[in-house]
Amino acid sequence: MAASTNASTASSALDRLKELTRPTGEEELMRVNYPTPRLRIAPRTAAAAVGCVVAVCLAAVGWSSLRSPDPAAGDAAPLWSTAAESSDIPEQVIVAVVGAVEQPGLVTLENGARVADALEKARPLPEADLVSVNLAQVVADGQQIHVLAQGQAPGAGQEAGQPGQGLISLNSATAADLTVLPGVGDATAAAIVAHRESAGPFTAVEQLMDVKGIGPAKFEAMKDLVTL
Questions:
Q1: Could you tell me if 138 and 170 lie in one domain?
Q2: Of all residues in the chain, what percent carry a pLDDT higher than 70?
Q3: CATH of the domain at 212
Q4: What is the chain written as a DSSP string?
């Protein structure tokens, strides 16, 4: 009985203690003296700094979006990929057609045209020997197409080296004579003459490719128009 009384008394005391220590909201707050800050930033200065940071972030995002490829665009070619290259390729070429044709002279063709296109405009005569002409050959600007008559030998009865008359001799033609060949200008003609003077007469037409400025494509266009 005494133990029960003591426990009840202790519980009452504990409850009373809790009641006394419960905050009422009217207690006086403790005053704390905080240290004075060393650096003070005015509100306008802080706002300007925040604005600069935001502007830099927006610029970085914009630059990244410009450099990133557009998935919807696919593998689109750059705008500058063909602008400079295509400007160096002529749209038309001019060739000379001589021999057994109704209209000998200069013929203007689209770039990539073939000998057959040139003869279609020059209109070969009935006696023209078209077997001696490579109709499928792609013409080059400045090329001369010589259509022989049937039974006529190349250069027969004509002096070698004369432009427009039979084949041109690599060993006797002058630099001016050589300029009638397709793709041969003054510089290339001079290089051909200089090569035969330094290395000796040509012994094979294929030696033209040893001359500076004459590659496989240019040689292919002139090989049937020259002789030794």
A1: no
A2: 63
A3: 1.10.150.280
A4: -HHHHHHHHHHHHHHHHHHHHS--S-SPPPP--PPPPS----HHHHHHHHHHHHHHHHHHHHHHHHHSPPGGG-SPPPTTTTHHHHTTS-SEEEEEEEESBSS-EEEEEETT-BHHHHHHHH-B-TTB-GGGS-TTPBP-TT-EEEEPBTTPPTTTTS-TT-TTSSPEETTT--HHHHTTSTT--HHHHHHHHHHHHHH-S-SSGGGGGGSTT--HHHHHHHGGGEE-
Confidence of residue 96 (pLDDT cuts 50, 70, 90): confident
The answer to whether the predicted template modeling score (pTM) of the entire model surpasses 0.85 is no
Structural domain boundaries, residue 135: 90-152
With a cut of 70, say whether residue 223 has pLDDT above it: yes
Task: State the Cα–Cα distance between residues 115 and 113, nearest whole angstrom.
Answer: 7
Q: How far apart are the first and last CA of the chain?
A: 145
Q: How many domains does the chain have?
A: 2
Residue 208: how many other CB atoms lie within 10 Å: 21
Q: Do residues 125 and 175 share a domain?
A: no
Which of 108-112, 156-160, 163-167 bottoms out in mean pLDDT, i.e. has the lowest? Answer: 156-160
Q: Note the pLDDT tens digit of each residue in 128-137.
A: 988 888 898 8
Exposure string (b/e) for 44-61, b if CB count within 10 Å is 16 or more? eeeeeeeeeeeeeeeeee
Find the farthest-apart pair of alpha carbons in the chain and give their distance in angstroms, rounded. Answer: 157
